[in-house]
Amino acid sequence: MEKSILEFQKNGIPSLEKIIINFFEDPTKIAEFVGDVRDNVLQLGLNIIKEQFEAIDEALCNSGRRKKNWEVVKHDEKTLTTSIGDLTFEKTLFRNKKTGEYRYLVDEMLGIDKHERMTEDAEAKMYKEAEQTSYRKAGEEMSILSGMSKQTVMNKLHSLQFPRYKHEGPKKDVKNLYIDADEDHIALQYLNEKGDIEEDKYANIPGKLVYVYEGVEPEAPKSDRYRLIDPHYFSGIYEGKDNELLWDEVWEYIDSKYDIDKIEHIYLNSDGGNWIKGGSRKIQGIERVLDEFHISEYLTSMTTHLWDSKEDAKEMLRNVIRKGNKTDFRDLCKRIYDAAEEDDDGARKRVEDGQRYILNNWTPAKTRLQRRSGVVGSSTEGHVSHVLASRMSSRPMGWSKIGADKMAKLRAYSWNNGDMLDLVRYQKEALPKAAGAEEYLTPKELNVFINTSGKDPNRYTERLQVSLPFQAMKKIRIIDNFW
Description:
Distance between the termini: 43 Å
Number of strands: 10
Number of domains: 4
Radius of gyration: 32 Å
Structural class: alpha+beta
Order of helices and strands: HHHEEEHHHHEEEEEHEHEHHHHHHHHHHH
Strand content: 5-15%
Strand order of the largest sheet: 8-5-4-9-10
């Protein structure tokens, strides 16, 4: 830290003294005081980081191992955005004596890609903010003293890859397992490139959400609010045959975490959409249960025209679904259909639509209304709202398909308590080492170089102490301002 301390002694301390003097001239300006001190101290931090990066580069230049295979070509500068500000440091370009390959060896030591513009901490902070608010805000908040454009944030998000779940430890034994599935309708700004959707045509795409859990429990003793037990979320834009990939992920998770032979029932709560039915075919032994919200929605729509009798009619429909058969249900639907005015085509169509929906999901609807032991209520509407809609569709915004897919996956990753720093590091494949560079500098050699290149680390302590004249002047100013 030699250079950093000397730089702070030369410029940082005088700057802090000036900041403190200005504060005591007007102690009401606390915000300005805090901000100025913060920026001054953060600059010291950036200088310390810069010095350590350059120390590694210097150690490479002095390494005997390096000299056998690599020769110095030139010195360049690289700027990285960190979570505290922009960092510019000097690095050396080397040339391999045997292969002629050029490489910045310090990049390899630090695990930095040659095209990288930000450090891991800044990138993790960027994803955390983007998942919650917007690309613009993420670019602003990723670094205290600097930032990135919203275009850069979007580009980084579009390239994200997400890890598959890996269960550690013995598999869990559960009697019942639950899968809830639903979708959010996300507005599209463009499909693959800007301008490929007509301006007067409203287009959206379904963001699919699936989550697996072990049941529900009260949030606290005597609480009327419930929470899911050990939920795990899956989300994204899965179109066509890609829908199978979603259910493959769900099955891999279940098979990895649970002892399949011990599970007696796997209940799938949903609205009966075709992409969800595909999941029931993909996962063996699954039992579909229709979402009660959608049952109620259709039954209400079917009976609206009955006015004062509509509640009785809805209950009769429920009883037929619960205890009767399809023939009984069709007979009751015909009576409700005939009760509509002859010219009320809207009412009759609603009855037909509701009848078709229930009959297409007859067994799942019956399972739901029979309240069989082990069947729990679906929470898909609330979870779609919290996991997807709150970020992606509740506000007026448009997405590209790839942006919607990546953001949906990022939201699911966050809801699974995924660590953003782990996600950043997952993106980095091992940087290929240049030929002949396998042992240009060992960690032990680096430590020896760093520890022997300086002197007593306490030699700057006295220089950092504030002078007595300044302390006295500060007290005088306080007294003068007070009186």
